Each structure stands twice: as C-alpha cells, then as structure tokens.
Amino acid sequence: MGEKVHSYSHANFSEMPFHKDSPFGFIFLDLGISSAHFDYFSRGFSFRYDEELDMRMDASKGKSAADVLAKLPEDALVKIFFDYGEEKFARRIARQIVETRKENPITKTPELVKICEKNYPPKYKAKGHAQKHPATRVFQALRIYVNRELEHLEKAVEFFPHELCVGGRFAVITFHSLEDRLVKRAFRSLSQIAQVDPHAKSNFIQGNFREVYSGGITPSVEEIKQNPRARSARLRVLERIR
C-alpha cells in the first residue's frame, strides 16, 4: 500500500524518461542487443540472415543502414567503420561500397557481407580479422552509427549518477570496448576529482561517487559456455557516497 507504480516508457534512456521519479536507489543499464532484434525483427542486424539493411532499433524514425551506405561519401564511411567498428580495412571496404553503389544500391545484408569478404586479405579470410567474420565490425559500426548508441550512452552516464540517492548505485553492463571505455572514463571522472592544490599529496581527491569493483566484473568461463554472447560483457558499478 502506498508504493509508487511505474509504467514502461517508450524512449531512449538518454531522454531521462523517469527523471520526475528520482532520486533512485538503483539504476541499471543493459547495453546488450536483444536476441529478438537479431533473430526475429528482420532489420538486418546480423550478417547471418538475408534481410533488408535497416538496423534501426526504432524503425519509426531516423535513417536506415541502407540510406547511410547510399548517401555518405567514402571518407565518412571510413570514419564510421574505423571509429565504431575499429575495422582495420575500413578504407578498402568503404571504397568498394562507393564503387558498387554506382551500379546498384546496397540494400540487403548478403550484398554488404560480400563486399566485406572481398576486401579482406587472403591471410585473414580463414578466421576473419581478430578471429571474427570479415563483416562483424562493419555491421557493428553501422548499427552504432544508425542508432547513435554512443551519443545516447555518453549523455546517460553524465546525468544518471546524479539521479541517485546517497548509497544508491548505478550499474552498466557493456558488450564491446567502445562502450566500456566510455563508461570507465565517466565513472573515473566522478570518483576521482583532479586536485588543484600543487602541494597536495595526491593528484586526485575523492568525489561524491566511488567505483564499487575495480576494473569491473566479467563473466566466468562457465557462464560463457552457457551463454556465448556474454563473452565480451563487463559490468561496472558506481555508488553515490555523499
């Protein structure tokens, strides 16, 4: 009796959909992609299926991956593949995309996969770059760009900690290095404030927050066996101490 009942909100977490209900004792962000997006939504998230290259989480707004491949210049595509996918062969792949679209638009997943495979050197084709399929990093990069994932995450980790009550915790589970580095830097900047006193014993002083687990928590070997998609996960937790 008397407890608040909260409804779901169709919004990105960077839009602060529950700001009016703060402060919170616990906030959790799971940055993983739902299996349903890969397996059932037919939006081209995975190179394993023959689907339209959409990749939008919310198909009601924004530009699709096919739009991006059709309109952006080569240099912009290179930046997307390198910045968001850390793709070593970004230039080769982007150049091939630009050449291919002069003849036919790239609208289906197999078309993009073929371009990625064609532009990987022979020595990488057996296992793929860093033991990944040649299309893995390009597909990741397009999905991140289309959905502005890092922009939304950057906003969220900036304001969510301040929505906590004292003793409250903010937990974020990431699934690739780009997300994890962003969260790590944000948590570090809140827990360790640069010291301006040149005579101080330390270069930093304790902020209003502390990192609960140094380095975060990663899945065990047994968990990875049971759920292979968890292999790259890392959980970081920040606590408000004052």
Describe this structure in words.
With 242 residues, this protein is an alpha+beta fold. It has helices at residues 35-39, 65-71, 74-85, 90-101, 109-118, 122-125, 136-147, 149-159, 177-191, 221-226; strands at residues 24-30, 164-174, 192-194, 204-206, 209-211, 234-240. The protein contains ten helices and six strands; from the N terminus they run βααααααααβαβββαβ. Helix 3 packs across helix 4 (90-101) and helix 8 (149-159) runs parallel beside helix 9 (177-191). The model has no long low-confidence stretch (mean pLDDT 88).
Kindly list the characteristics that best describe this protein.
single chain; 242 residues; alpha+beta; Rossmann fold; DNA polymerase, domain 1; two-stranded antiparallel sheet; globular
Brief digest:
This protein is an alpha+beta fold. It is built from 10 helices and 6 strands.
Annotated CATH architecture of the largest domain: Orthogonal Bundle
Number of domains: 2
Rg computed from alpha carbons, rounded to a whole number of angstroms: 21 Å
Q: Please give the count of helices.
A: 10
Give the class-level CATH name of the largest domain.
Answer: Mainly Alpha
Indicate the CATH topology of the largest domain.
DNA polymerase, domain 1
Number of strands: 6
Measured by DSSP, the beta-strand proportion falls in 5-15%
Instruction: Give the % helix.
Output: 25-40%
Unreliably modeled segments: none
Secondary-structure element order, N to C: EHHHHHHHHEHEEEHE
Could you tell me the mean pLDDT? 88
Q: How would a textbook summarize the main sheet?
A: 4 strands, mixed
The gross shape turns out to be globular
Cross-sheet strand order for the largest sheet: 1-2-6-5
